[in-house]
Amino acid sequence: MTPLRVSARTLAEYTYFAVDLSQMSMQAMVMGRLGHRARQKESSAQAERAISWKGECAGLSFHVTGRIDLLDDSVSPPVVEEIKVTSGEEPICALPAHRAQALCYGFMLAQKNDLEGAALRIHYVREDGTTLASFLENLSFGELADGFFALLEPYAMFMAQVLAYRQRRDDSLASLDFPYADFRPGQRDMAAQVFTAIKLKKRLFAVMPTGTGKSAATLYPALKALGQGLTAKILFLTARTTGREAALKEARGMTARGARARFCVITAKEKCCPREVMDCDPDVCPRAKGFYGRLKSALEEAFFDTVWDAGYIADLADKHTLCPFELSLELCLHADVIIGDYNYAFDPIVYLQRIFDRTRDITLLIDEAHNVPGRVRDMLSAELSGPDAAAWRRDLGKRYGRGAPLYKALSELITALRNLPEHIDFLPEEFAEALDRALDLSRDMALPGTAGRELHRFCVMAGRYVSAPEDYAAIIRVHGKEKSLMLLCLNITDYLGHQTAKLRGCVYFSATLSPLLEMRRLLGGTEEDACFSLPSPFPPENLLVMTLPVNTRYSVREQTAAQIAQAVADMYRAHPGKYITYFPSYAYLDKVSQFLEGMEDIPLHVQQKRMGDVEREHYLRRFSDDERPFLGLCVLGGVFAEGIDLPGRFLIGVCIVGVGLPQVNRVQEYLRASYQKRLGNGFDHAYRFPGMQKVLQASGRVIRSEEDRGVILLLDDRYAQDAYRCLLPENYYVRTLKQSAGITQNMQEFWGR
Questions:
Q1: Is 600 exposed, middle or buried (0-12, 13-18, 19+ CB in 10 A)?
Q2: Are 58 and 164 contacting, i.e. CB atoms less than 8 angstroms apart?
Q3: Residue 30 maps to which CATH number?
Q4: Which tens digits make up the pLDDT trace of 655-712?
Q5: pLDDT interval class at 87 (50, 70, 90)
C-alpha cells in the first residue's frame, strides 16, 4: 500500500487547533513570508531543511514530511527552530500547535540521524524579523518519539475511517449504472471522451447542444474515474444557479442508484451569511466564536448523508451555531464532488486553497464554458475608483475620526490617484507607495463594508501588473475631478493553461463553445487536447430558422426601429403564442417597444432594468402560469437569454435583433489588439465570437425537448455573410427572406396553417 502523505503542520493542527474562526488574509500571508525570510537571513543556521519520516502506526503506512525553518546542527543537541510571525502581543509561552510542529521535526531529525535528542526553539518575530519571544527546550529521543506518536495515532485512527469510507465509495461506483435507462444519442461517446481526458490528464473541449444530457454525460464518467483512483476530487463548476441545480439533480439520481460519493455545494459567503451585516470577527459573530470547537460534531452528523446542498448546510450550520460558508469549506475537504462557481478554481484570491494546496489530483468539469473567458478576465482585473476611495474615507472618518492614520493614508491615495496622467505604462512610485501604506494600515484598522476586500484585490492585481505588464492594460477613467485606475487583464490564455496543466483532466463543455478550435486556443488548450462536438439530438424539421436582412448597427437604429417592430409583429401574428425578442441594448428595446405598444393585438411582457431575484422570478413565471399568448422583450446576453428552461408551449419562438457584438469602447479595443497579437484574429475574439455565442444561447431557449417545435427569427443583414453564417449550428437550416411578408408565409407553412 502506498504510504499516506501528511505534513507535520497538518499533523500538529489535527490535535491542536484554534478554537475561534479567524480570517487569514493575503496580507498576513505576505507578512509571514517576510518575517520568516528576515529571521532566516540574520541566522547562520540552515534554512528550509527538508525532513521526512516513513513508518507505520495503527496498521497504516505513513510518509510524514516538512521543512525545518532553521536547523543549527553545529551544536549538541541540534536546535530545531520553528519561526512564527505575529503582530500581536508578546506570547508568554509557545502555542501547543507550534510546539507540536517543531516536535515532529525534532523526532524525524533524531530518528534519521540516530541522535539521543534534539532542542526545540519556538521563535516569535515581527514582520521585519525582530524577535518578540523565544522558547527553548531540550527533549530526549524517547520524549520526542512519545510526543510524535501521540500526534500520529489519533490522526491514523481518523485516516482509517477515511480509507474505509473510500473503499465503500469505490465499490459502489464500480457497480454504478448510468442513471437513466438508456444513453441519449452521443451521450455515451461524450462520457468516453471525459473518462479518457481524466485518464490521460488532458483537457477536453466539447460542444454539447441542448438535450444531449451534458451534466450526466460528464459527471457519471468522472465518478467512474474517481472510483478507479484516476482522480481524487471533482469540481463541477458553473456560472449560474441553474447549472448547479442540474448537477445536483444528477448527483441525487446517482445516489439513489447506489453511489456512495459525497457531493457538496458552495454558496458565496455574502449570499449564505445569516447576519444582516456580515462581520466575521469572533468578538462580533457568535458563529465564528468557538467555531472549531463545535465543528467536529457537525461533520460527524454530515457524514451520515451524501448530498450537502445549500439548504442542508444552512440547517446544519444553524443547528451547531456555525458559519455556513466556513462549514461548506470544511465539508469540501471530505466531499468527492464540489459544485460551485468558476471562481473557486480560477480566482487567485478566493480559490479553494485548502483543496488545491493539498493535491493536484483534481478534475474540473466546467459547464457553460463559453462564459469562462469573460469571468476569468474579471477575476484577474481590478479597478481602484477615486469616488469609491472618497466614500471609504468618509465612512472611516465617521467611525475613527479624520485624525486616524488610515484616513490620512486614504487621502494620500486619493491625491496620488488624481495626479495620475491620462496614460501610464507603469505604476508611478508615488501612487505605489500610497497604495502600500493604505493596505498596510487597513490590516489593523478595518475599512468599512467591502472596501477592505476591494483594496486588497486591487493590490494583488497591481502586483500581477507590475510582474507582467505585457498581460495588462492600465486604463485611466476620469470622473469630474476624480479618476479611476482600471487594470485590465489582456492575457487569460496563459493563466488558464497554467492553472489546468497538471490537473487530473479538465473538461470545458457548452452548447455554444464555438468555434471549437479557436476556443481551445483561447482557453489555454494545446493541440494535444481533444475537441469533441455532438450534433443536436432533436429533429431538424421541428425548428424553423429565418433571417431577414435589416441594418441594426448603432448609427441607424433610430431609422430601423419601425422595421424591426413590424417584423416582430408579423412573427407573433402569424401564430400567436409565447415569444421573446432579444435586443442588443435597453435603448434599442425601448425604441422598438414604442412602436409595438401602439399595436393593440400584441400584449407585451417587458424586461426592466435592475430586476431583483423576486422580480426575475415573477417575470419568468408568467411563461408557465399564464395561458394567454404574449410577446416578451428582453436584452441579449441578459439573465433571460441564458440558463432558463421554457419547454413546449411556454416558449414557441424567439427573435434576435442584431449579431450580439459587444459595444466598441476602450476595453474592447485593448482586447482586440491583444488578441490580434496573440491569436491573430483580434476582431473575431473580441467581438464576433462572443457576440454570436450570445445569439446561440438566446436561440437555444426555443427547442428544449424532442417534442418541442419552434421558430427562430434572426434580424440583421450580417447573417448573410459567411463569417457569421458559419458560426450557426449545422442543424439551423436558415431561410433567407427578402421582405417581412415572408415571415408570415413561412410560419403558416411551418405550423400547418
A1: exposed
A2: no
A3: 3.90.320.10
A4: 999 999 999 999 999 999 999 999 999 999 999 999 999 999 999 999 888 889 999 9
A5: confident
CA distances to 425, 506, 522, 666 from 374, in Å: 24, 18, 11, 16
Q: Are residues 713 and 567 in the same domain?
A: yes
CA distances in angstroms from 557 to 220, 297, 583, 587, listed in the order given: 48, 63, 11, 10
The three-state DSSP-derived secondary structure of 518-547 is HHHHHCCCCCCCEEEECCCCCCHHHEEEEE
Q: Are 495 and 380 a contacting pair, CB within 8 Å?
A: yes
Residue 293 lies in a domain: yes
Is the domain of 226 the same as that of 240? yes
Considering 505, 533, 561, which residue would you say is the last residue of a domain? 533
Is 682 contained in some domain? yes
> Could you tell me if 512 and 481 lie in one domain?
no
Please give the C-alpha separations between residue 203 and each of 364, 377, 520, 523, in angstroms, as whole numbers. Answer: 9, 20, 9, 10
Helix (H, G, I), strand (E, B) or coil at 711: strand
Amino acid at position 285, single letter: C
Cell (9 digits) for 306: 451524501
CB of 571 closer than 8 Å to CB of 711: yes
Tell me the C-alpha distance between 521 and 379, whole Å.
20
Question: Are residues 446 and 356 located together in one domain of the fold?
Answer: no
The one-letter code for the residue type at 20 is: D
Same domain, yes or no: 85 and 232: no
- pTM given for the model: 0.92
Query: Cα 509 to chain center, whole Å?
Result: 15
Domain housing 217? 187-378+494-533
Cα separation, 410 vs 439, whole angstroms: 9
